[in-house]
Design a protein that fits this description.
This protein has one domain. About 50% of the residues lie in helices and about 30% in strands. The chain contains three helices and two strands. A two-stranded antiparallel sheet has the order 1-2. The relative contact order is 0.17.
Length: about 90
């Protein structure tokens, strides 16, 4: 896994996500296997604070100016907004 894919995976965990799950129950009817029940559910996986901390440790915020911090804040808020939109689709 390259660095970008790893960072994207950590970002997904940091923001939380929704996962679809399908459960199917089969039975034998007239000598043939047949689908009896199918249940589709969606699970919300909450944001993980350890992943958030890991992402925040990538940047040395202590050496940034107020203007740089403000730009970084806007960038992160934009990224969060985009990620939330992507996971709600």
């Amino acid at each position: 896994m390259n660095g970008d894919k790893l960072r994207e995976a950590i970002m997904k965990v940091a923001l939380g996500y929704t996962v679809g799950e399908v459960t199917e129950e089969y039975g034998v009817e007239n000598g043939q296997l047949r689908l009896l029940k199918r249940k589709e559910t969606r699970k919300d996986v909450p944001p993980d604070l350890k992943a958030v901390k890991l992402l925040s440790e990538e940047t040395d915020y202590s050496s940034m100016t107020d203007e740089e911090l403000e730009r970084e804040k806007r960038r992160l808020l934009q990224k969060l907004s985009e990620e939330k939109e992507d996971t709600s689709d």
